[in-house]
Amino acid sequence: MESQLQQYLPVLVLFLVAAGFAGGTLVISALAGKVGRRTKTKDIPYECGMLPEGPGSSRLSVKFYLVALLFVLFDIEVVFMYPWAVVYKELLTQNAALILGGMVSFLGVLFVGYLYALKKGAFDWTR
What we know:
- It is a single chain.
- By secondary structure, the chain is mainly alpha-helical.
- It is built from 5 helices and no strands.
- The chain has a single domain (4-119), classed as Methane Monooxygenase Hydroxylase, Chain G, domain 1.
């Protein structure tokens, strides 16, 4: 029977290979970067062929951030629903009403939040 330390040897080797690859890539990049000539034109940021003019960052509407947060909220909903759906048949043998009730209440709270955001016009981009 193998010892536990011997079982972790492949993980250690993989870690060393990954660290060596990352370090080697950085060293080669630094050495190759010093060989090339740098000009002012090469050092400006490239953005679709346009010359960078104006401020570096523009101000965005609060609506943009609100929609982004709502997306994260409903994305998290799916993250919680997927594992629940995977083990749903196994959980039915224990207490079916409690399991289904928990998910329905979870979806109910999220649906109320969705209706609130809809009523407040969070999804209306024209305002």
